[in-house]
Amino acid sequence: MDGQIVVVIGGSRGIGREVARQAQARGARVLVAARGAAALDELKQTLPGVATAQADAVDAAALAALFAPFERIDHIYQAAGVFVGGAAAEGDEAVYRQALEPRIWSIMHVVRAVRGKLRGSLTLTGGVSTDRPAPGAWITNIGTAAAEQSARALALDLAPVRVNAIAPGWTDTPMWDAILGASKAEAFADVAAKLPIGRIATASEAADAVLFLMNNAAITGEVVHIDGGHRLV
Ligand SMILES: NC(=O)c1ccc[n+]([C@@H]2O[C@H](COP(=O)([O-])OP(=O)(O)OC[C@H]3O[C@@H](n4cnc5c(N)ncnc54)[C@H](OP(=O)(O)O)[C@@H]3O)[C@@H](O)[C@H]2O)c1
């Protein structure tokens, strides 16, 4: 990936951060965008040479500004997304709508912002909840499915640019620290015991699939599952 330009949207923590690290290690010039300044600053300390920018993936103007300086972008990974729990029969409609923003409209904003500039690939983020819906999280289940279907649809519309998605299962990232807090270890142990691989995947393993999709020029419209066999049990 020597000299290639890789942009990670949602890369200050978790899977996106690992994609940034692995792409840089392979020689890419990497730009990471996220909303929070603190995690971006911390990223700069640990990955010197990675450029950072504060941008919200659901803000079309922010994404246009992010990509404006580039004449060419080789690969984009869109990691931005949130887990939103709650049943359809109750809960706040506005919050549920927000959950779809990064997984549907943000993708449109990205595609518009890089028109004529993106050369290689766009990788989106779905999740195991597409095939194994998480009980009580209906809108997240819809969101991951939407991102995966976007990869298939955009593989046709953006060709020859390749568009794929990863579908992570339970992956050990700061997302779960925020959601589960002190019960994380117990919840992870419960899930791990049911998985064929007997453990929770790492952010590095999910990121490895993103790098694979960026680098294999024959793959488009594909969804790669990194779920430890979760769909089978
Ligand atoms: N971890 C899992 O088990 C798992 C499973 C299935 C799918 N996924 C999906 O995989 C993706 C990455 O997950 P993760 O576990 O790595 O999450 P994470 O640890 O919470 O990291 C998410 C990253 O995205 C950024 N982000 C979130 N919303 C954003 C927005 N609107 N605009 C720009 N940046 C944004 C966050 O920074 P800021 O908050 O500062 O913006 C952070 O850098 C997410 O879409 C998640 O839903 C994760």
Task: Describe the 3D structure.
Helix content is 44%, strand content 19%. It is an alpha/beta fold and 233 residues long. It has one domain (5-232): 3-Layer(aba) Sandwich (Rossmann fold), CATH 3.40.50.720. The protein starts with a strand and ends in a 7-residue tail after the last strand. Bound molecules: NADP nicotinamide-adenine-dinucleotide phosphate (NAP). NADP nicotinamide-adenine-dinucleotide phosphate binds at residues 9-16, 33-36, 39, 56-58, 79-83, 102, 125, 127, 168, 170-171, 173-175. NADP nicotinamide-adenine-dinucleotide phosphate is lined by residues 9-16, 33-36, 39, 56-58, 79-83, 102, 125, 127, 168, 170-171, 173-175.
What is the subunit organization of this protein?
Answer: single chain
CATH hierarchy, class: Alpha Beta
State the separation between the terminal residues, measured CA to CA: 37 Å
CATH T-level topology? Rossmann fold
What's the short story on this structure?
The chain has 233 residues and is α/β, with parallel strands linked by helices. It has helices at 14-25, 37-46, 60-67, 93-113, 138-157, 174-180, 184-194, 203-215, and strands at residues 5-9, 29-34, 51-54, 73-78, 118-125, 162-168, 171-172, 201-202, 223-226. NADP nicotinamide-adenine-dinucleotide phosphate binds next to helix 1, strand 2 and helix 6.
